[in-house]
């Protein structure tokens, strides 16, 4: 796939692996939309990356409507999409059980939050992007991103 000139969405793009991915895509000449829950950090990263970077604001990957709106803003800004790199996630770590204690163990709320962000959020973004990719005009004569 040709990176240069194509547009990618990077979830979790305001820090860690997502930020590194966004930086590399920009370095290779791509347009990048950063989807992140931390809008302040996303705006800061966009300022560093320059005019080929964009953030549609706070993006909660678990929200169908927020992701839909963020994708629409990205398409309005850059046009056709070439793909998504899902780096958005949380690292919730706790023991399932401790002998004689319940304090410090993984609660159901913690587990639910982790699954919603890491699994459901990734699927939510991927399915919405996939729907756009299969329905937009091909990016080149072979039907793939050039």
UniProtKB/TrEMBL annotation:
<dbReference type="Pfam" id="PF00106">
    <property type="entry name" value="adh_short"/>
</dbReference>
<dbReference type="GO" id="GO:0008667">
    <property type="term" value="F:2,3-dihydro-2,3-dihydroxybenzoate dehydrogenase activity"/>
</dbReference>
<keyword id="KW-0560">Oxidoreductase</keyword>
<dbReference type="InterPro" id="IPR036291">
    <property type="entry name" value="NAD(P)-bd_dom_sf"/>
</dbReference>
<protein>
    <recommendedName>
        <fullName>3-hydroxyacyl-CoA dehydrogenase</fullName>
    </recommendedName>
</protein>
<dbReference type="InterPro" id="IPR003560">
    <property type="entry name" value="DHB_DH"/>
</dbReference>
<dbReference type="InterPro" id="IPR002347">
    <property type="entry name" value="SDR_fam"/>
</dbReference>
<dbReference type="GO" id="GO:0019290">
    <property type="term" value="P:siderophore biosynthetic process"/>
</dbReference>
